[in-house]
Fold this sequence. Notes:
The chain is built from three helices and eleven strands. By secondary structure, it is of the alpha/beta class. The strands form two sheets. Strands 1, 3, 4, 6, 7 and 8 form a six-stranded mixed β-sheet that branches. Strands 2, 5, 9, 10 and 11 form a five-stranded mixed β-sheet that branches. The radius of gyration is 22 Å and the shape is globular.
Amino acid sequence: MKSLQLLSLRLRDISRYQQTACVAMLFLLIMMTSGCSPSYPTTDTLTNFSQIKEDEMIVVGRLSVLPAVVGASLKKETDTFVPFQRERVLIWIRADKTSANSLGLLADWAHTFYFAVPKQTQLLIGLERAFDDDGDPAYAMLALPEPLKFLVRVDDNVVYIGNLRVYTDEFDEIVAVEVVDESQSALRDVRERFGDKVRFRVSLLAPPQYFR
């Protein structure tokens, strides 16, 4: 009888171990496929068209972060507060309506970026704050209210997606977003960087339902 009880306990332990192992494997699989892991390769800002492949195009845009003013009494305080100083931002995109892996684009807040991405309509699915933690890179999720989309055509070589402004509260969470069209100044910068022969097109970020 004791032997049967001992065997039953051992089987329970094995079952618990298998459950724990399954949970760990599931968590690892989610991290590998969700695009939220900083282990994916990031893309550097481009300086000329020789750096892109035939099936790629250049996406141009900017991300800026502003404190959300929650009351008149806080205005003076929030006017002097700059969120995420000395940090960068990791932009996660993936091709729309495909199972392709997400691509991480590491940019500087408030600076225009020029990234080579696959020539496909893309979804901006998430953001992460990127900062230095005692010499090691660290990342913190910055959840968007919803994904944002920009359209890409087969003959595009430069697409401008706008200045995505994110407004954060005192808990460093996004409470609102807006897309600002700065395409006129962006066009001047693109021509100065890449020359006058670029095919510059505007496709501002917007919720996916706007394109239906």
